[in-house]
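ARCHIVE CARD
Drawer: 12
Card no.: 0347
Subject: one protein chain, sequence and derived structure
Cross-reference: see card 0346
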Amino acid sequence: FQDPQMIGYISTCYYHAPEIMWTFGALDAYLEPWMHIWSPGCIFAEMFEGKPLLPGKDRVKQFSIITELLGIISSGNMLWIVQSLAKREHIPFHKKLQCMDETLNLLEKMLVYDPRKYIMGTHCLAEEYVSPYHAPNNEPVMNEKFD
């Protein structure tokens, strides 16, 4: 990859959620309050591993690595993408990552295929691993979308 324009894409590809990688520019449909949990989940895992959790070099390789971790999705709008991939079962996070149970519990809520099932950012703060830093009286929450 000698193309300087690709460097930014490759380095951020590691953190792209599956639904973002395959929207082909139609991101407005995905800009919901539960969005943007996948990327912090990847970074969170990287903090413990000392290396990217999902180091794909392009969308196809990235999705292949994601399916190695989460298994093959069996239904939904991305099924056509994975039909050519080998059958893969979900790898429990405790077999892939060396971290505390509280961390694994949070990661399993952040890294899922269905973005509607992502843990909300406000709920992340109440999880056992980060709860010591949770200050509900001093954490503003935005209740409506903005441009």
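Annotation on reverse: Helices lie at 4-13, 18-21, 38-49, 59-70, 79-82, 93-96, 101-110, 121-124. The radius of gyration is 16 Å.
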